[in-house]
Write a sequence for this structure.
């Protein structure tokens, strides 16, 4: 019987992934389309369940039957509707489908030997209901052992680069797709401890995308061809999904380039005439758009440091975690707002 747990899973709001430790090396396992598996589930009219990239591909053609961001609902009794099949799933059940998919990819990687244990990381902001929901999802996925590890501890260990951790305080700034966590971690005598944490379970890179998609929707609305162009109107649901997908692409592109074109060629057809949206966005314009959202994160950081009586100068390390932290303006805003 194996005495160690060699697999680790990041069950994320936007993407999930699984990795394995092999001796002193770590390998992130590819799930067919790459190491990142979109945390998405599609349930079709025949009740067939698609997970990951296959589900994301259905967002345009069948947005009403694709669920994403259900991690934000973990620990609640809310049910997600899939109208085509008439089925309803809890956030736990949807998370279990993502875990099953990751484990299947790992089984293929191990020549169809299923795994029975994996460490699952959780945000420090998760309370008992969310933690219990994650444990329940792991059981539904067939994992016999699934200890939970707080993400700031995982990040502090990973950023240290060796088992000999630097003594002192770490600030772990974790901005994911759907959640923001900031944690104060102390390293003492080789042991890590989360002293305090703060955050927002409804704040992340997806909120950046929504702001950009909203700007595009306002431009379409101002042209007047679609009248009250609102997401709440069922006929426009696919169009808003297109805007959100394009917003994510443009945001990521602007992390590498100074300008990017927001372009959806066929947003809606009106009397056999297609309505499109096209405009050029600069990095500065995007940063001005998302600045208030980033400042919400720095306010939480400042509040946590103040209640622990710490100044930025006393921190040994600032660790940035999550894809949205690649936004170029973010480090400079952290420096100007927090003095780090």
């Amino acid at each position: 019987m194996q005495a160690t747990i060699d697999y680790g899973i990041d069950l994320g709001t936007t993407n999930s992934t699984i990795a394995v430790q092999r001796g002193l090396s770590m390998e992130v396992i590819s799930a067919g389309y790459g190491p990142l598996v979109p945390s998405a589930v599609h349930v079709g009219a025949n009740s067939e369940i698609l997970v990951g990239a296959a589900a994301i591909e259905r967002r345009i053609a069948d947005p009403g039957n694709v669920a994403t961001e259900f991690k934000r609902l973990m620990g609640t009794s809310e049910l997600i509707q899939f109208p085509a099949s008439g089925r309803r799933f809890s956030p736990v059940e949807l998370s279990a489908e993502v875990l099953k998919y990751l484990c299947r990819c790992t089984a293929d990687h191990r020549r169809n030997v299923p795994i029975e244990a994996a460490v699952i990381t959780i945000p420090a902001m998760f309370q008992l209901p969310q933690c219990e929901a994650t444990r329940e999802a792991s059981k539904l996925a067939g994992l016999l052992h699934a200890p939970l590890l707080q993400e700031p501890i995982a990040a502090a260990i990973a950023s240290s680069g060796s088992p000999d951790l630097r003594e002192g305080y770490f600030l772990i700034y974790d901005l994911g797709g759907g959640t923001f966590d900031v944690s104060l971690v102390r390293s003492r005598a080789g042991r890590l401890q989360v002293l305090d944490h703060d955050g927002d379970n409804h704040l992340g890179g997806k909120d950046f995308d929504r702001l950009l998609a909203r700007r595009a929707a306002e431009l379409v609305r101002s042209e007047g061809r679609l009248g009250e162009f609102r997401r709440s109107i069922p006929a426009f649901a696919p169009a808003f999904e297109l805007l959100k997908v394009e917003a994510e692409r443009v945001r990521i592109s602007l992390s590498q380039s100074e300008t990017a074109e927001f372009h959806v060629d066929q947003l809606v057809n009106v009397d056999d005439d297609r309505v499109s949206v096209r405009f050029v966005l600069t990095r500065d314009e995007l940063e001005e758009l998302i600045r208030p959202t980033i400042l919400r994160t720095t306010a939480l950081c400042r509040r946590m440091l103040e209640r622990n009586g710490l100044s930025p100068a006393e921190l040994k390390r600032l660790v940035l975690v999550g894809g949205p932290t690649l936004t170029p303006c973010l480090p400079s805003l952290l420096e100007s707002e927090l003095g780090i």
About this structure: The mean pLDDT is 89. The radius of gyration is 21 Å.
